[in-house]
């Protein structure tokens, strides 16, 4: 129709972004009707980038507020709540859920009850005549059919009632829910019809398999004596059908789900227990045997409902929208941040310990449960050694010493006689390779170098020295740029402990030259990078050159570190957050970049890069700001506006997917978060010294 100016295809993420731009230039306010199952992505996550791009006030109506949301559902509702200027819900319980479960500010929330049209209450008998029901007692339930309606309870209650009141007709009005049709066809409707036949109710139950126009629906409700909502569970925060029935002045008999308990209070309806046909039959009989009681309930319901007709509710929406517009302030696109320690979760090693056994740190997890099937790897145990060393260096935590011993033992076990390392070990302690990747080798040298500079005791220092020194002969053989970069980080810490080692300074220079030679060969005026493709751990390359410059003070190292960092941030920074290169295709020069999946190790590399730049270059405040912005990717300042850090498990989700977060919380992602957290804390302390 002409009134529709822009359409969003559910699963097309770019449509949501374009819609935000359209709204910004064509509307005074955005009104979001939120319901799960409407928007694309996991739990409807695609709506978050849209609302985050808005430059107009946002009024949100939550149709469903869950008491026990999943991780993604809670994150999405919380983020919408932060962004919304005003929020409308339809019940008091929804308000308490939003405040207590989702931590949304109470002052944003207003109750606007589910509205309905104005009913002709006085002409009840004429509507019964219209449908030839004048000599019938009319019961009714309407809405999209699904097992969540509990209609079988009402059918099972009828035989006892029909026995005493044989002129009863129960109207079941509505099409089957599209989701049910897709999953199981008309199985539920057929089940109900078989139940009708089994109970010999063929003359008393009528299925109207259609989606009625508003006028017809209102007419049927006006002809109804008793309306039944036999939902099988309490988790129903809003029921439009219940609101309509109350507004029509029907005598409602319902199970005590949340909305019914609130709406039918003070004698406006009758409640019976969940999944209790006998209880429903008893309440129906008592009503039918007492017409005066039924009339009183109908009058109370109709009188109460007159406060919530569409014209009156529409006025409330208009006033709420006006308040949202009046109180709106255009957000700053790029607000400078210092490190705000109040935003950092408390340092907690629960998930680190969960992933660690007496052998080392396990690679993977199913959600937050360790997955033994994939065993262990050198990469993760080296990162874990580095992280626990940093924890002990900060807090002198005895538990960190114990964990360090485990990880160092694993590294020792995996070293080959020639100084190289194996990487993978099965859960039953079988070697799975003969030699690790150069990346894994470099990460191990990084961890060992840090341990040499920050050893908590002599025993650790001695074993780290032996492992590090045994590996030195491998350094100059390295070809992988990231293997070289990781090794340079380790060498920089080694030189903090042994600054007089000229031989190691020469090795550092030689390895750094490999990076700068690659840069000079592959970079150009429109591509200032070391390779013709941006892949993973990108920030590591400039970071290592900043470290080299700190030790050698070769201006070319600093120049290339700055140029490559500037190029990388021109691609990664998107306004107030970073958008990492996705591993589903990466970003090859001249081609389209992949947006997903975004990986935690890449966010950590950005944090590390800015920390190293902060220590040796100018513009320290700018680097500090960008470092903290990179860290905040973990806490939800990302493309989908979803946190990857799990405040409940203290782990970190494995990636930001197109559909939402990857809920698995393996070692790599959890350590990437922990290392980023520790780097931010260290930078905060160093800021005080500059």
From TrEMBL:
One Pfam entry name: Glycos_transf_1
Domain Glycosyl transferase family: residue ranges: 130-301
Gene3D superfamilies: Glycogen Phosphorylase B
Alphabetical UniProt keywords: Transferase
One GO MF term attached to the UniProt entry: glycosyltransferase activity
Keyword Transferase: yes
Listed InterPro entries: Glyco_trans_1
Protein's UniProt keywords contain Signal: no
The protein, known as: Glycosyltransferase
């Amino acid at each position: 129709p002409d009134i529709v100016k822009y359409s969003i295809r559910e699963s097309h993420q770019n449509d949501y972004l374009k819609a935000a731009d359209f709204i910004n230039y064509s509307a005074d306010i955005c009104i979001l009707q939120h319901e799960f199952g409407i928007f694309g992505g996991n739990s409807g996550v695609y709506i978050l980038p849209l609302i985050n791009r808005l430059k107009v006030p946002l009024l949100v109506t939550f149709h469903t507020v869950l008491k026990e949301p999943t991780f993604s559902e809670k994150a999405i509702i919380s983020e919408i709540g932060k962004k919304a200027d005003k929020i409308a819900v339809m019940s008091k319980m929804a308000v308490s859920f939003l405040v207590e479960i989702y931590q949304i500010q109470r002052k944003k929330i207003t109750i606007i009850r589910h509205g309905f049209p104005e009913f002709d209450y006085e002409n009840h008998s004429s509507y019964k005549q219209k449908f030839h029901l004048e000599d019938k007692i009319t019961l009714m339930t309407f809405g999209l059919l699904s097992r969540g309606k509990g209609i079988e309870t009402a059918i099972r209650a009828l035989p006892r009632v029909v026995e005493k009141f044989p002129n009863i007709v129960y109207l079941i009005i509505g099409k089957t829910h599209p989701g049910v049709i897709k999953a199981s066809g008309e199985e539920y409707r057929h089940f109900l019809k078989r139940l009708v036949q089994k109970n010999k109710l063929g003359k008393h139950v009528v299925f109207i398999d259609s989606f009625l126009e508003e006028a017809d629906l209102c007419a049927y409700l006006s002809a109804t004596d008793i309306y039944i909502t036999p939902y099988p569970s309490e988790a129903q925060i809003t029921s439009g059908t219940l609101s309509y029935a109350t507004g029509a002045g029907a005598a409602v008999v319902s199970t005590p789900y949340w909305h019914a308990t609130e709406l039918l209070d003070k004698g406006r309806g009758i409640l019976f227990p969940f999944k209790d046909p006998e209880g429903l039959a008893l309440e129906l009989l008592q009503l039918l045997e007492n017409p005066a009681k039924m009339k009183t309930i109908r009058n109370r319901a109709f009188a109460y409902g007159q406060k919530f007709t569409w014209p009156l509710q529409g006025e409330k929406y208009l006033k709420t929208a006006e308040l949202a517009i009046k109180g709106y302030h255009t957000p700053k696109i790029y607000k400078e941040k210092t490190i705000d320690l109040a935003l950092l979760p408390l340092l907690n090693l629960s998930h680190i310990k969960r992933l660690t056994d007496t052998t080392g740190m396990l690679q993977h997890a199913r959600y937050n449960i360790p997955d033994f099937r994939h065993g262990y790897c050198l990469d993760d145990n080296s990162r874990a050694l580095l992280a626990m060393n940093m924890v002990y260096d900060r807090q002198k935590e005895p538990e960190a010493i114990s964990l360090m011993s485990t990880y160092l033992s694993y590294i020792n076990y995996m070293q080959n006689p020639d100084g190289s390392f194996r990487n993978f070990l099965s859960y039953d302690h079988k070697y799975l390779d003969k030699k690790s990747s150069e990346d894994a080798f470099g990460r191990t040298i990084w961890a060992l170098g840090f341990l040499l500079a920050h050893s908590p005791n002599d025993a650790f220092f001695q074993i780290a020295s032996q492992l590090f020194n045994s590996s030195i002969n491998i350094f100059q053989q390295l070809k992988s740029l990231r293997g070289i970069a990781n090794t340079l980080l380790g060498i920089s810490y080694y030189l903090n402990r042994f600054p007089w080692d000229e031989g190691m300074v020469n090795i550092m220079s030689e390895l750094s030259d490999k990076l700068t030679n690659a840069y000079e060969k592959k970079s150009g005026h429109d591509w200032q990078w070391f390779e013709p493709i941006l892949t993973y751990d990108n920030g590591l390359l400039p970071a290592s050159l900043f470290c080299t410059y700190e030790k050698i003070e070769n201006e070319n190292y600093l120049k290339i570190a700055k140029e490559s960092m500037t190029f990388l941030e021109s691609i990664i920074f998107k306004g107030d957050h970073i958008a990492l290169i996705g591993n589903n295709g990466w970003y090859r020069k001249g081609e389209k970049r992949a947006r997903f999946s975004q990986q935690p190790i890449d966010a950590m590399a950005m944090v590390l890069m800015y920390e190293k730049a902060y220590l040796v270059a100018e513009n320290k405040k700018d680097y500090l700001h960008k470092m903290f912005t990179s860290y905040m990717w973990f806490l939800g300042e990302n493309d989908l506006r979803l946190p990857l850090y799990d405040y409940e498990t203290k782990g970190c989700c494995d990636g930001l997917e197109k559909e939402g977060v990857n809920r698995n919380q393996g070692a790599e992602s959890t350590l990437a978060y922990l290392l980023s957290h520790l780097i931010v804390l260290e930078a905060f302390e160093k800021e005080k010294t500059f």
